[in-house]
């Protein structure tokens, strides 16, 4: 049986500091007919999670928010009409609890965990059975917690519009969660992977993970043309996480009718003075480019992704430091300072 009280982390204000994260205790919610009570065992952080308390998130968030979309745990109780899960099942959350299949619509967009609704940085959470998936059989709870945002976003980028094919080329930027998952998915699919990074140490890690080519963007600011020269006709898929300061280079390396999946803005929401100006809309016409924004993916896509993770025994890349539940503020700061390599994970006890 679950404990009598539920420990939680709550964002009390959007104050440009992680001091606004506070702990409290609340009653464990009751379970409805179609609900599942989950003991959260691990939570992973995304740049989006840290940008919310820093008041830099471009979407609205609820007040007194329990943060974090990405949770993994074990089922401890099910409602009387639940058919997909039973006590003891290991699970993972969905980023959008209401995005089950097909295109993302406005109503489903309002179900984002850790943003529009309370998230997973707590000991227990009640979910609708539709908003959960069974954890991959080859992953631990800590590894499973990395999937709901970064992994499915990378999967959607590679398979959502023009599915990646063996022999094609993928370019990923940096060493964050989405980029590393995209690198792993690309190699599992038999594609060539090009990665950009800022240091020799990170370049070595990327090569160990299977990157065929690594470009240091600090040493080579025109890395888009360099990447293009590594291919026959250009890159098929670019996983774009930098924002305005990297998008022009992404288009430079892209083949005609290739896909740029715009996912993040870790380089800032606006262009840096003195940097090459971001491309204009008509620049996509001259290169016959497909540029799409992605906000994670559906449950249907996540189920397909989990099959691939199991079939290829893909192991998520986690930072060497795992934080305790009481160290949430430190985990957020660690991510924000970009001291991580791979996913930052909090173990929930």
Task: Give a structural overview.
With 349 residues, the protein is of the alpha/beta class. It folds into 2 domains: 5-135 and 317-347, Medium-chain alcohol dehydrogenases, catalytic domain (Quinone Oxidoreductase, Chain A, domain 1), CATH 3.90.180.10; 154-293, Rossmann fold (3-Layer(aba) Sandwich), CATH 3.40.50.720. It is built from 11 helices and 15 strands. The protein has helices spanning 47-51, 106-109, 141-144, 147-159, 177-188, 200-208, 223-229, 247-253, 283-286, 299-312, 328-336, and strands at residues 5-11, 21-27, 35-45, 70-78, 90-93, 124-128, 132-134, 169-173, 192-197, 213-216, 235-240, 254-262, 290-293, 318-324, 343-347. The strands form 3 sheets. Strands 3, 4, 5, 6, 7, 14 and 15 form a 7-stranded mixed beta sheet that branches. Strands 10-9-8-11-12-13 form a 6-stranded parallel beta sheet, with helices on both faces. Strands 1-2 form a two-stranded antiparallel sheet. Helix 4 (147-159) packs across helix 5 and helix 7 runs parallel beside helix 8 (247-253). The longest helix is centred in the C-terminal third of the chain and has 14 residues, at 299-312. It is globular, with a radius of gyration of 20 Å.
Short description:
This protein is 25% helix and 26% strand.
């Amino acid at each position: 049986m679950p404990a009598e009280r539920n420990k939680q982390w709550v964002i009390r204000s959007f104050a440009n500091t992680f001091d606004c994260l506070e702990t409290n205790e609340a009653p464990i919610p009751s379970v409805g007919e179609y609900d599942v009570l989950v003991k959260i065992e691990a939570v992973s952080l995304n740049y989006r999670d840290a940008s919310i308390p820093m008041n830099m998130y471009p979407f609205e968030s609820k007040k007194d928010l329990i943060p974090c979309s990405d949770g993994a745990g074990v089922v401890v109780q099910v409602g009387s009409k639940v058919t997909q899960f039973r006590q003891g099942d290991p699970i993972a959350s969905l980023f959008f609890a209401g995005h089950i299949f097909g295109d993302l619509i406005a109503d489903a967009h309002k179900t984002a965990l850790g943003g529009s609704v309370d998230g997973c940085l707590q000991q227990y959470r009640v979910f609708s059975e539709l908003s959960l998936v069974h954890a991959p059989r080859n992953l631990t709870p800590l590894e499973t917690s990395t999937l709901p945002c970064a992994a499915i976003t990378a999967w959607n980028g590679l398979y959502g519009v023009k599915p990646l094919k063996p022999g094609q080329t993928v370019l990923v930027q940096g060493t964050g969660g989405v980029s590393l998952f995209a690198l792993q998915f690309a190699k599992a699919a038999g594609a060539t992977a090009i990665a950009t990074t800022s240091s020799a140490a990170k370049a070595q890690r990327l090569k160990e993970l299977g990157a065929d080519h690594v470009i240091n963007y600090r040493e080579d600011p025109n890395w888009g043309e360099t990447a293009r020269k590594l291919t026959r006709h250009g890159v098929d898929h670019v996983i774009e996480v930098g924002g305005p300061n990297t998008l022009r280079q992404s288009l430079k390396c892209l083949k005609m009718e290739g896909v740029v999946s715009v996912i993040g803005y870790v380089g800032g929401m606006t262009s840096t003075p003195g940097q090459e100006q971001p491309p204009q809309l008509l620049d996509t016409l001259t290169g016959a480019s497909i540029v799409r924004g992605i906000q994670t993916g559906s449950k249907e896509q996540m189920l397909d992704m989990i099959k691939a993770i199991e079939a290829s025994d893909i192991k998520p890349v986690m930072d060497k430091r795992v934080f305790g539940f009481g160290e949430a503020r430190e985990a957020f700061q660690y991510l924000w300072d970009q001291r991580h390599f791979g996913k930052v994970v909090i173990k929930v006890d």
